[in-house]
């Protein structure tokens, strides 16, 4: 597949509290075929740990 499914962008940044829901969102993106782009960013907002994880659609060998 040369493009992400359902019209999704080739680059996405997933963000949210560091909880099971966030982990499932990242896992779902990986299951669709996205790859992690670098490591996550983690911040504390005084109440919760907030995580950001970039994912990207892999390029075809011809690109």
Automatic annotation (TrEMBL):
| Superkingdom assignment | Bacteria
Q: Name one Pfam family in it.
A: DUF1737
The DUF1737 domain covers which part of the protein? Answer: 10-55
Q: What is this protein called?
A: DUF1737 domain-containing protein
Q: Please name the source species.
A: Glycomyces sambucus
């Amino acid at each position: 597949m040369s493009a992400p499914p359902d019209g999704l962008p080739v680059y996405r940044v997933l963000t949210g509290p560091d909880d099971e829901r966030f982990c499932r969102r990242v896992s779902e993106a990986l299951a669709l075929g996205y790859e992690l782009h670098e490591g996550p960013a983690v911040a504390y907002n005084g109440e919760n740990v907030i995580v950001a994880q970039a994912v990207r659609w892999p390029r075809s060998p011809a690109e």
